Amino acid sequence: MQLELLNQLNFRNLVSSGLRFLPGLNLITGHNGSGKSNLLAACYLSLTADLPFGRIADAIRLGEDEAFVSSRFSHADGSSIVEIGLAPGRRLVRLDGNTVRSEQLAAVAAAVLMTPEDAQLVHGSPAGRRAWLDSLLGRISQRYARLAREYARVLTQRNALLRSGQPDSSLKVWTDQLVAAGTVIEELRVRALVRIRELAAEAYLEMTSGSTHPERRELAVTLSSEGGPGLQEALDATAREERIRGVTVVGPHRADLGLAVGGHSVQAFGSRGEARTAALALKVAEYRLLSERHGEEPVLLLDDFTAELDPERRSFLLSLAQSVPQVLATATESPVGLDAVQHLHIEAGTLRHAG
After folding, report:
1. φ, ψ for residue 84, nearest 5 deg
2. Domain residue spans in the chain?
3. Which of 87, 239, 292, 333 has its CA 20 to 30 A from that of 108?
């Protein structure tokens, strides 16, 4: 899979359009605040229909009402064009001239974005980890994406009923729908996590192969709802608490991913460096799972990609960047040992070929 051409209008601070990218490693350098992250956000949006940072309104240049991003990319079945229009509260996605949902785009396009902020997958909130998992599963399964939307809709209605104090007969209709969608979501999560934990453990082992503490090299990924009671039983057990609080307190929307190394929780005891390594292992697992799903490797987007990494992890990431079909990588300066097929420099949203 290759991103060939990117066009944009009014996307954050970007000025340049008609940007062409080559197979291999495309390096974009520039000072902080020059637009490096915005460029990768536009590329990611064009291949996933998802904004990696902030709200839609924040993606539109200040003073403008709308923004536009489009790309041409090649894949196993040929070449496609994606067009995405953004306005406050609205997003329109077109694939080869047809309006589509994000999961339909995900059937033919894929990209993985890695940033220093990925450490928040470990030290951030459970909501962030759920969002990562839901996004990944929605990109490998259109069924999962549809069920996640349905579950969110039903959950909103059920919570409204709980707050209003409606009788149990009214609540049961929404409870049955919540259980139907939520049970399948949990089953699909557990099934997918079998492969995710294998891939994440492999990546973590690769990154820490030279560690002086080999007993701590095993990364374990768990899901809090695994092995627990079924959703209906959990709802029955928390019915009184729900009435008091006016909210659904159990279900897929409350599940969390646990990350442990050598039996010790990375969330509770890991340093920022350890968190960055565990998060990187999850992102590598994401990349490899999407590769398996598509039968070809996604576009890899690396933002400030060697920041906050020790030499061992930096070496792993540099090796990864040199081994995959296409990478767009940003840095404040060209890293030592990096062989780029194209070197661009960005300043105030404008790109040019570096001298």
Report:
1. -130, 120
2. 1-110+299-355
3. 87
